[in-house]
């Protein structure tokens, strides 16, 4: 039986990873001029963010220990689901990068 702390820990990691991925994907789509640049940066850098947050936050829930018997399912929950949610949030619910006005220069 899975404890409430394990469920809360997984939900915490999923929420943090979703927010980080959504912000990173949006940043790449707004700042990079090419479509493939945003795709490449997203495919390379978001998993690095996930690796760091998963290692940092998983110590609280014992990732792969007694709380979870199947590591594949755990990785799908903390990497694939948040990434899919972040991509769908950016593509379907946020305005297109062409519609967003960016400042000419930073002060």
UniProtKB/TrEMBL annotation:
Pfam families: DUF7991 (PF25953). Residues 1-105 form the DUF7991 domain. Keywords: Membrane, Transmembrane, Transmembrane helix. The chain crosses the membrane at residues 37-63, 75-94. This is DUF7991 domain-containing protein. It comes from Halorussus caseinilyticus.
